[in-house]
Amino acid sequence: MKYAGRSIRGICLGLLTLLLPCSNTACDSDPEPADGSTVSATAFGPEQLGVIVNDADPASLHIAEYYVKRRRIPAGNVVHTSFVPGDSVMRPEVFQVIRNEVDRQTPAAVQAYALTWTVPYRVGCMSITTAFAAGFDADFCSLGCKSTRPSPYFNSRSRRPHTDFGWRPTMMLAGTRVSDVEALIDRGIAADGSNPRGTAYLLSTDDRQRNTRARFYPGIRLLQSDRFSIEVINANSLHHRDDVMFYFTGLARVAGIDTNHFLPGAIADHLTSSGGRLPDSRQMSSLRWLEAGATGSYGTVAEPCNFVEKFPRPNLVIDTYLNGETLLESYWKSVEWPGQGIFIGEPLATPFPP
pTM for this one? Predict the structure, then answer.
């Protein structure tokens, strides 16, 4: 329903913004999409996903083969490159050669990418998922607590990001072992159309520096509780829950995540400085969420400070996912400044019907 050019939900959200304590303009609970577009009726699926494989990495080859077969990705969407595996950080000049090769091979219909390795996770100062999505650009990075280049895909209604914005949002099929990635892929596929009756757990912690997203929680509970079970909990950890579909928190390390049961398609992350340094973080790696059973997670690969714009907005993740978009779309549309953040998980998981 529309009223005076805006939806009733948009009007309610605008009023809610006035009621919530905010420190910047990003505090609105669920802003109207900035691009003014309408939702495409065309679903995002295997035909729009390119799979990038490192031919010099046996694990990458295996993961790509498994994923292409399980998700029925068109053979023409498999993009080959080759580089010596093992390093966490790739030099920008090396990356540029690889991305040029990838661009030449990518069919025009491909709108997003899946990477089939865990390292490298970074290109210079950028996350490798944003580097593949938009190209390497130092404006995506920051030295000190500064803003970075925004994403035009943020909070948009686009189902064709490359067609609309020239970006191919990218997600990494990551894991410590190949068997972990196979299990991740299987969970993503099991999630499709499951319409789970789970719970979104929003934890407000005592870590003031990392708890900056908690100000969105009242709005989420107000606007989504008629669609999904929402629990806002004042605690540092969650234990022995058997219905976790969303888990958002802010801590350097999160205890007890493996005591919970994550439903297929579940999304979970923790706001901290280096969760995206996947195998070598001094904090808790975002991989731990996937190992505990989540299907998607996120972390930053370089010091982001605690800007909420550099992390997933839980309100936008939940709303977009519940509206029937894929895990990749829902996560990417929730991050305004994604240059330092890495997206990991099974991109095409779609638990909720549109």
Answer: 0.90
- One-character DSSP codes across 140-180: G--SSS---PPPTTTT---S-HHHHHS---EEE---SSHHH
Q: Are the C-beta atoms of 313 and 335 separated by less than 8 Å?
A: yes
C-alpha dihedral sign at 203, 206, 211, 215 = positive
Q: CA angle 248-251-252, nearest 5°?
A: 130
Q: What is the pLDDT of residues 130-184, one digit of tens each?
A: 999 999 999 999 877 899 999 999 999 999 999 999 999 999 999 999 999 999 9
Residue with tokens 């936008």: 316
Q: Token digits for 187? A: 């969970």
CA 190, distance to chain mean position in Å, is 19
Alpha-carbon span 173 to 114, nearest angstrom: 7
Asked if omega into 312 is within 30° of 0 (cis), the reply is no
* Location of structure tokens 């929680």: 217
Tokens of 137: 């650009």
Cβ–Cβ < 8 Å for 344, 297: yes
- Bridge partners, residue 6, by sequence: 3
Residues 6+ apart with CB under 8 A from 212: 250, 271, 306, 308
Of 237, 233, 244, 163, the closest CA to residue 197 belongs to: 244
The Cα 292–Cα 308 span in angstroms is: 25
Q: Give the domain ranges of the chain.
A: 46-172, 196-325
CA distance 131 to 122: 8
- Coil vs helix vs strand at 65: helix
pLDDT tens track for 75-96: 999 999 999 999 999 999 999 9
CA distance 23 to 179: 44
For the stretch 17-20, contacts whose Cβ atoms lie closer than 8 Å and that sit 24 or more positions apart, written own/partner, are 20/215, 20/218, 20/219
